[in-house]
Design brief:
- The chain contains 13 helices and twelve strands.
- It is an alpha+beta fold and 357 residues long.
- The strands form three sheets. The protein has a five-stranded mixed sheet. It has a four-stranded antiparallel sheet with strand order 9-12-10-11.
């Protein structure tokens, strides 16, 4: 089992967008609320915990969400307000460490190995930060504490909402053995289902696969799975940099040539990319398709719009167009990837959001 002296905290705000709306409008408190979409169209950007009890979740079609919860309240998103609250929260982080890596408006990694202030205990620092966030913003956050980013990220979800969970180096092996693979950060729904079909449901099951077996099935992602199930994660907390691009890709377990099959598999990649774009609230003008063939030849094709990709359907249609231009495929395709880039400069003013709100 891998150990490290690093002290990593992952802070994740609880139902952030929806909680901000409930904070600012007392009439919404205690009620099922979603941000984004409406009862007829669009997608859910965020759901309150009251809505989640009905099975409503982010990235869900609004009509499906309304069907699950007939009393659902739809609220138009105010992303400038959410960004302002996010800045307040980050200022609190910087009181404790300069090593802050934001993942989105509502979550971040902090390396507090050599904290600026507070107790030497990462757990006590996490409790302090949660308290400061509550006092400053009126919102709750959950925190995970461990020696690496992967475990801290997983831990922050254990006692949500308004919780804290700690995984020490000595506890990591037992924790990972009993963790469902679908809860592993970095293992998506499709991969989890594939593992389940092989009888792999828990970390202990995943650990039985050799490195060679995992790489054969999942490509370079197999290396990541092999390491994290053993608690190995050497990634550093990287302070915020200007974002140049945001993407998602998938290496298939077999090669595909049929356009219809590739379009279906690409939809999974689109879904993941769209979730990342929504969470980061960053929308670019250029979409790039990456295709890697069975013989490892790789090509990229791009399209740039006059406006940004702020609609899920526009992203989907552009991806289909780029893929369709390369058909028919004479060679099998082993990997597809989509990347959005060409983000508006920060000084050029706010992005006009048209997320079906």
């Amino acid at each position: 089992m891998y150990t490290s002296v690093r002290k990593i905290i992952h802070v994740d705000m609880d139902a952030f967008f929806a909680s901000v709306e409930q904070r600012d409008n007392p009439a919404l408190r205690g009620k099922p609320v979603v941000v984004g979409g409406d009862h007829l169209r669009g997608v859910v950007a965020a759901a309150s915990y009251e809505a989640r009890k009905f099975g409503v979740s982010s990235a869900m079609a609004s009509v499906v969400a309304k069907r699950k919860c007939p009393n659902l309240i739809f609220v138009r998103g105010n992303f400038e307000k959410y960004k302002a609250v996010s800045r307040q929260i980050r200022e609190i982080f910087f009181e404790y460490t300069d090593l802050v890596e934001p993942l989105s408006l509502d979550e971040a990694f902090l390396d507090v190995t050599f904290a600026k202030k507070g107790k030497p205990s990462a757990t006590l620092i996490a409790k302090e930060i949660k308290k400061r966030i509550k006092e400053t913003t009126g919102l709750t956050a959950s925190a995970g504490v461990s020696y690496c980013k992967f475990l801290a990220k997983v831990a922050s979800d254990v006692n949500k909402p308004d919780g804290i969970f700690v995984i020490t180096p000595d506890q990591a092996e037992a924790f990972l053995d009993k963790l469902e693979v679908r809860k592993f950060f970095g293992i998506g729904r499709v991969t989890a289902e594939k593992l389940n079909k092989q009888g792999i449901y828990m970390g202990a099951d995943l650990k039985k696969l050799t490195l060679a077996e995992l790489v054969h099935q999942f490509g370079k992602s197999g290396i990541y799975y092999y390491q994290i199930v053993r608690g190995i994660d050497d990634r550093q907390v990287e302070p915020e940099r200007e974002r140049k691009s945001l993407g998602a890709e998938n290496t298939f377990s077999e090669d595909y040539q049929q356009l219809e099959v590739l379009e279906e598999r690409m939809q999974e990649i689109e879904d993941e990319l769209w979730r990342r774009l929504q969470r980061a609230q960053t929308f670019g003008r250029t979409l790039t398709l990456k295709i890697k063939f069975a013989d490892f030849e790789q090509i990229t094709r791009s399209k740039t719009l006059t406006d940004t990709f702020t609609q899920r359907e526009l992203l989907h249609q552009t991806a289909l167009e780029l893929l369709g231009h390369e058909a028919p495929f004479v060679k099998g395709v082993r990997l597809l990837g989509l990347t959005v880039s060409n983000f508006p400069h920060l000084g050029s003013g706010p992005v006009q959001l048209t997320l079906d709100f």
